[in-house]
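Input (structure):
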């Protein structure tokens, strides 16, 4: 299935969710994330500030702020830069996404764990993003463990997503009812 078809299919499924389903799925996914050894051991976590159609990260950020050092991406031209997260220091940035304020950028290689958003994943760790390539460019430089988070209907069978040479697969996927899925390495 091509990436545009996957985006359309997932977008249609998301419109069918009500707020209670969205909140319950986010709670299950981020509870699974919190129970992972990789998260427990991580001090510096790059995570996304969710858009309305994504699994909400807001409660998770509030719950763990002060116990983990969170970082958020900020669009800078064609790339993402990484800055520390503080709820009181964000603004509506590129693509109407909350982005951190300030100039104190961090290096991607200082992250212990990266929580990666996507439109869809397959069980091989391949992902479909929103089509701009921001995360692929960022992940190409990363050494940290990567975890994709999604609703169950965003999870496809291995090989269903056409991976291109520049696509960077994630190490783990957490789907709301499937739990943690370790991606096999070839």
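Output (sequence):
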């Amino acid at each position: 299935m091509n990436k545009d078809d996957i985006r359309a299919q997932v977008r249609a499924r998301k419109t069918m969710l009500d707020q209670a389903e969205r909140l319950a799925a986010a709670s299950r996914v981020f509870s699974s994330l919190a129970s992972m050894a990789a998260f427990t051991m991580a001090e510096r976590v790059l995570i996304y500030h969710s858009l309305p159609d994504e699994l909400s990260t807001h409660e998770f950020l509030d719950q763990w702020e002060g116990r983990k050092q969170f970082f958020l991406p900020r669009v800078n031209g064609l790339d993402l830069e990484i800055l520390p997260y503080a709820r009181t220091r964000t603004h509506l940035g590129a693509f109407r996404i909350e982005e951190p304020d300030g100039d104190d950028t961090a290096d991607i290689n200082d992250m212990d764990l990266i929580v990666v958003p996507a439109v869809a994943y397959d069980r091989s760790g391949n992902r479909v993003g929103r089509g701009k390539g921001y995360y692929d460019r960022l992940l190409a430089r990363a050494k940290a463990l990567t975890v994709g988070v999604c609703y169950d209907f965003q999870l496809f069978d291995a090989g269903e997503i056409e991976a291109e040479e520049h696509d960077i697969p994630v190490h783990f996927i957490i789907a709301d009812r499937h739990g943690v899925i370790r991606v096999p390495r070839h």
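Notes: The two ends are 22 Å apart (CA to CA). The chain has a mean pLDDT of 93.
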